[in-house]
């Protein structure tokens, strides 16, 4: 299946995409938004995007793109993230990587390379490409990318030993499934009053539906207006999930609710 993910080759998203597609089916895009657009516009059958990291939290670019375009989530892929520092030699003065990777290695960089310039680029593999072209640049990325003139200067440089990222596998809305142990939805309540968030949470709590993630994001329209992203451990096929959603639809009658779908989780090493 034609699958788009964050490029160039060698990103963590590319590794996660390996769980759903063969390498010759994978195409690269330069941003999460381009991936979501490609799936929403029917240019690709699947898209793989990072959604949440155990150190840095949600990938807000992904949350916002999911709120803007109609796509389904058909699988979750979880992979451990172990960063390497890759360069042609020890004499570099710039470290280039994806903002999430730079943030996950902040303490390491402050301690070992307090004077380097930190440069945010579109992906970890793009930072590694820059390191391959320029001896004054080091990249942070998966150590497997240290090919050719590149050396692994240091391994496991993330600030916590356990560092994992969740990826969503996206599909066109017609492929949305109600089967699967987890579900995601986005609620834009179209209202703002005391206790609104509490009201939105109650339908889940009353039915013993565990919330595995709650995020609020600004709607971008007015300061203080939010939409909410929920992940629940329950499938849309379940009667209790449908009952909770019916209540939420009522609360959000002046806004909208998007069911992204139900899915299962796959762990990839
Ligand atoms: O840049 C990448 O390799 C990505 O796939 C995004 C990312 C960055 C850092 C941790 C997990 C995913």
Write out key terms for the chains shown.
D-Maltodextrin-Binding Protein, domain 2; binds 3-phenylpyruvic acid; elongated; 269 residues; 3 domains; alpha/beta; 5-stranded mixed sheet; Alpha-Beta Plaits; 10-stranded mixed sheet; 26% helix
Quick structural overview:
By secondary structure, the protein is an alpha/beta fold. Helices cover 26% and strands 35% of the residues. The model has no long low-confidence stretch (mean pLDDT 96).
Structure description:
With 269 residues, this protein is α/β, with parallel strands linked by helices. The chain is built from eight helices and 15 strands. The chain has helices spanning 12-17, 32-40, 60-68, 99-104, 106-112, 124-133, 196-205, 239-251, and strands spanning 3-6, 26-29, 46-53, 57-58, 72-80, 84-87, 94-97, 117-120, 137-141, 151-155, 164-171, 182-188, 210-218, 226-233, 256-267. It is elongated and about 60 Å long. 42% of the residues are buried. The mean pLDDT is 96. The site of 3-phenylpyruvic acid has 14 residues, from helix 1, strand 3, helix 4 and helix 6.
Average predicted local confidence, pLDDT: 96
The biggest beta sheet reads: 10 strands, mixed
Assign the CATH architecture of the largest domain. 3-Layer(aba) Sandwich
- Tally of separate helices: 8
Indicate the proportion of strand residues. Answer: 25-35%
What is the element string, with H for helices and E for strands? Answer: EHEHEEHEEEHHEHEEEEHEEHE
- The beta-strand count equals 15
Give the number of domains: 3
Which percent bin holds the helix content?
25-40%
Which stretches are poorly predicted, pLDDT < 50 over at least 5 residues?
none
What assembly state would you assign to the polypeptide chains in this entry? single chain
CATH topology of the largest domain: D-Maltodextrin-Binding Protein, domain 2
Q: Output the structural class.
A: alpha/beta
Name the CATH superfamily classification of the largest domain. Answer: Periplasmic binding protein-like II
Coarse shape: elongated
Please compute the radius of gyration using only Cα atoms: 20 Å
Name of the CATH first level of the largest domain: Alpha Beta
Q: What small molecules are bound in this structure?
A: 3-phenylpyruvic acid
Q: Distance between the terminal alpha carbons, to the nearest Å?
A: 22 Å
């Amino acid at each position: 299946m034609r699958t788009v993910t964050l490029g160039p080759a060698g990103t963590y998203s590319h590794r996660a995409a390996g769980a759903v597609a063969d390498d010759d089916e994978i195409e690269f895009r330069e941003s999460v938004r381009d991936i979501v657009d490609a799936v929403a516009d029917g240019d690709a059958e699947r898209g793989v995007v990072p959604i949440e990291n155990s150190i840095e939290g949600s990938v807000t670019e992904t949350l916002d793109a999911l709120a803007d375009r109609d796509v389904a989530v058909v699988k979750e892929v979880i992979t451990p993230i172990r960063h390497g520092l890759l360069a042609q030699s020890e004499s570099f003065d710039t470290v280039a990587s994806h903002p999430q990777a730079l943030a996950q290695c902040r303490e390491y960089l402050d301690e070992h390379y307090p004077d380097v310039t930190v440069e945010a680029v579109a992906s970890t593999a793009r930072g590694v490409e820059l390191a391959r072209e320029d001896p004054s640049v080091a990249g942070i990325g998966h150590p497997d990318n240290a090919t050719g003139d590149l050396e692994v200067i240091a391994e496991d440089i993330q600030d916590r030993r356990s560092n994992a990222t969740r990826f969503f596998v996206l599909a066109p809305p017609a492929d949305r499934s109600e089967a699967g142990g987890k579900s995601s939805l986005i609620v834009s309540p179209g209202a703002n009053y005391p206790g609104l968030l509490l009201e939105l949470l109650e339908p889940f709590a009353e039915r013993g539906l565990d919330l595995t993630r709650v995020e609020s994001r600004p709607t971008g329209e007015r300061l203080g207006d939010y939409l909410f992203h929920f992940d629940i451990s329950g499938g849309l096929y379940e009667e209790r999930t449908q009952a909770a959603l019916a209540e939420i639809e009522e609360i959000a009658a002046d806004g909208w609710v998007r069911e992204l779908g139900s899915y299962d989780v796959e762990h990839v090493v």
